[in-house]
Amino acid sequence: MFNNIPKAKVGIVAVSRDCFPASLAINRRKALVEAYTAKYDKDDIYECPVCIIESEIHMVEALEDVKKAGCNALVVYLGNFGPEISETLLAKHFDGPKMFCAAAEESQEDLQDGRGDAYCGMLNASYNLRLRSVKAYIPEYPVGTAAECADMIHEFLPIARAVYGLSRLKLITFGPRPNNFLACNAPIQQLYNLGVEVEENSELDLFESFNNHAGDPRIPEVVADMEKELGAGNKKPEVLGKLAQYELTLLDWVEKHKGYRDYVCIAGKCWPAFQTQFKFVPCYVNSRLTGRGIPVSCEVDVYGALSEFIGTCITGEEVTLLDINNSVPADMYEESIKGKFDYKHTDTFMGFHCGNTCSSRLCNAEMKYQKIMARNLPVEVTNGTLEGDLQPGNITFYRLQSTSDNILRAYVAQGEILPVATRSFGGIGIFAIKEMGRFYRHVLIEKGYPHHGAVAFGHYGKSLFEVFKYIGVAQDEIGWNQPASLPYKSENPFA
What is the pLDDT of residue 130? Predict the structure, then answer.
């Protein structure tokens, strides 16, 4: 199976204006590389030996050098003021995510020939990037010492992985959305705008492929792996053979259909006819593939799958997709949360899905049946969910979405899963996000988001916010859980 998570290799190119000493840029580049390798993995970066001065020829030499070195991301490092034309032409012609940062002055004892003025040069660089319509990541404060710029580059890595991954992603779908799920709308123009390739298939295509995998000799090996993963939670052993057959169907489809793209995610069908025809639900298989870095969303949620892929690139770990599902009962809040955790009742809610969350993120995961579906169908055709309370810890709830009128929007909210028993079913957890009640009303409802949200296990809001900016989401279209002191535009000041 191919690796579905990009690895960023960043080429560092120093630039120098010809009326400043080139040695400033070269020596500061060397110090930057030394600072990075002293703290982080040396394989993350490549030091380009070409210093771009006032020459487009130098720019071409540097571009060819970083390409030859296999770099898929670029850092333009202003060791001094820098040549605004050549340095931004380098960014323009480099095919991949790029970042600009600049060297701070080093000592009050060396402000004659040792002064580089990169603080000023960053302004000219950013202006020229706008003139050329070149996207680049610029840190919050992009001027620093060698150690500080090394930290900036390290923070750029997850951003670079996500941006690079999107440009080489194929999003595979099976079937239309279930009826009454118009909320998971999927206008695909913005996917193409992002550089994502889309392959849309019928669930009948999937069903045919599944049937063709009957008796696949690899099934027993996959079943054994499922049994090992589930352990004591293997409550439905009779369905594992079908689930293994389905898993092999998806993996083979990915291998056969990824084409010239490097990375894949899937928006899959899971109801209403799936259960009666396949004779199981796909939740557990979705969780296993997502755990391997191949996100699979439920209910043909195209932008849900896309959001999961972005989170996978940023974190390098499994993510999940959940319904922003139900409120926490008042008696549960009073008994288990109030006074124990610093959250209002309206800061809390339950995130739920039938059973698509990876077992590594669940407490006492068990294979069960889909309770909601089983209210109308025989239990045996609803087997295949992976259930359990989500493990407590920090989370980031987020989503990238295109509206029906083709506006790209996103939201990011950091919080945590509380160590409180849900007393419910499915893959479910009690989430707490500061000012969630206001965020729910003035971002999720006001901006027309669907009920699905992606969940990264940890606080990754900073990287997600930067990725959304980089790929073209307007800053006033990125929602977040604002503190009470900062009202939303739609918030009634008299409420």
Answer: 95
Residues 6+ apart with CB under 8 A from 189: 402, 406
SS3 at position 370: coil
Three-state DSSP class for 52?
strand
Mark whether 51 and 174 lie in a shared domain: no
CA neighbor of 295 nearest in space, from 387, 399, 384: 399
Whether 227 maps to a domain, the answer reads yes
Q: Which two tokens stand for residue 117?
A: 């003025």
SS3 for 137-163 is ECCCCCEECHHHHHHHHHHHHHHHHHH
Nearest-CA neighbor of 452 among 298, 313, 290?
A: 298
Task: With beta carbons less than 8 A apart as the criterion, state whether 145 and 104 touch.
Answer: yes
Phi/psi of residue 267, nearest 5 degrees: -110, 105
Task: Report the distance separating Cα 363 and Cα 365, nearest Å.
Answer: 6
CB atoms within 10 A of CB 473: 20
Domain of 194 in residue numbering reads as 169-480
Dihedral (Cα; 457, 459, 460, 462), 10-degree rounding = 170
Whole-structure pTM value: 0.95
Q: What is the pLDDT of residue 176?
A: 80
Question: Does 467 reside within a domain?
Answer: yes
Which phi and psi angles does 101 have, rounded to 5°? Answer: -150, 170
Do 142 and 177 fall within a single domain? Answer: no
- 157's tokens: 């890595």
Distance CA 107, CA 103 (A): 12
Whether the ω angle into residue 237 lies within 30 degrees of 0, i.e. cis, is no
Helix, strand, coil abundance in the chain, percent, nearest 5: 40, 20, 40
CA dihedral sign of residues 28, 30, 33, 39:
negative
Provide the terminal-to-terminal Cα distance of the chain, rounded to the nearest Å: 55
Note whether 199 and 340 are same-domain residues: yes
The residues near 94 (Cβ < 8 Å, ≥ 6 apart) are: 63, 66, 74
Q: What is the pLDDT of residues 199-217, one digit of tens each?
A: 999 999 999 999 999 999 9
- Separation CA 133–CA 60 (nearest Å): 19
Give the residues across from 410 on adjacent strands. Answer: 400, 478
